[in-house]
Each structure stands twice: as C-alpha cells, then as structure tokens.
Amino acid sequence: MENLPPCPECSSAYTYEMGAFLVCPECGHEWAPTAAEPAGDSEDGVIKDAVGNVLADGDTVTVIKTLKVKGHPTGIKAGTKVRNIRLVEGVAGHDIDCKIDGFGAMQLKSSVVKKA
Questions:
Q1: What values do phi and psi take at 33, rounded to 5?
Q2: What is the pLDDT along the chain (116 residues), one digit of tens a residue?
Q3: Which spans in the chain are helix H?
Q4: Which of 15, 21, 59, 94 could form a disulfide with 90, with the two C-beta atoms 3.0–4.6 Å apart?
Q5: Where is the Protein YjdM N-terminal domain (predicted)?
C-alpha cells in the first residue's frame, strides 16, 4: 500500500482513495490528492469560488448545484442568488456566512458558489 497523506481536517492517518479523491473514514472529509492545503485556504487566506474568482465580504454569489438542507423538503436549488455574503472561518470547510430567502441564516462552502 502506498503512503497517503493524513486528513487535513482531523489529521487521521487512515485515509484511503476513492476514485479521484482521498477520503477520511473518521470525519468523512473528501479532498483531491493534489490539494495540499484545506479547501478555500490558498495563498494567504484568500477564498475563491468554484471557478477561481476571489470572493470578498458583501459579494453576491449564485449557488451552482442543488444543496440538501436537513429538515427542509426541497433544499436550495441551483441558481439561487445569495446577496451580501460574509467570509468566515467556519466548521468543516464552510467559509461563507449568509442569509438565504426562505431558509434563513446558514453557512455555505465556497466550492458550491459562483461569483455573480
């Protein structure tokens, strides 16, 4: 078996490959093997969206894929606009704090949004 890097979230040594990603069985985190740093934290804390645009506080973003929301039957649909985002150090890679109409306050990952 080859040497795989430890999980960037919980530092577990029990990572394994699943397709093109590495997976941690302890915390469930998935990441690309070429991503040496945690998602969204590239070059001096700059947070980028799914297509590589740099995000800033107050930006408007669009959700690029349908997201399931626990306790809500429909979830957040792709194409939903989110205005006035705030960039935060969130839990489990969630680095955008926002309010979404019909859902309220929540956190999103920058990998599922695109700058509008």
A1: -65, -20
A2: 467 888 888 888 888 888 778 888 888 888 887 644 444 444 557 899 988 899 999 999 999 999 998 888 889 999 999 999 999 987 888 999 999 988 889 999 999 999 98
A3: none
A4: 94
A5: 4-32
